């Protein structure tokens, strides 16, 4: 299971009242989040990409894919250390003073090592997990042709081995006056 070392600078949440130590909650948010933001660095240049992704609890890993050649692959091959973030926003919480305005939120940050998946069987596995997540109502061999080996030559599949993760959330109790979901639609 992932670590929550309070001494780790990577996973320490400054606002401990909002820190989530519950691995099941963290895994659930990783499972339901639609988009992840992947941070990488090549030499002194940081990059961040938004990606569709899937969390695989059986391997404590995250899979995603990109074009066969490009910045993501080049960056990961040069430096496989990555950070991935997912989040969701709840209600906006107005207040009497500007400083007290707030928002409900939930987020997970993952630290790990990314690998370009070379093994064709694992690459097909990762791609199928992605299809199953985003198209759960469709089935290979029934609604579409299953992944073919030659198709794997056109994509790069990645696996992030999760080393540490942390969760953070803020929720307001009850029904705060004036709370609303973004975007504001007026009355």
From TrEMBL:
<dbReference type="InterPro" id="IPR024747">
    <property type="entry name" value="Pyridox_Oxase-rel"/>
</dbReference>
<protein>
    <submittedName>
        <fullName>Pyridoxamine 5'-phosphate oxidase-related FMN-binding protein</fullName>
    </submittedName>
</protein>
<dbReference type="InterPro" id="IPR012349">
    <property type="entry name" value="Split_barrel_FMN-bd"/>
</dbReference>
<dbReference type="Pfam" id="PF12900">
    <property type="entry name" value="Pyridox_ox_2"/>
</dbReference>
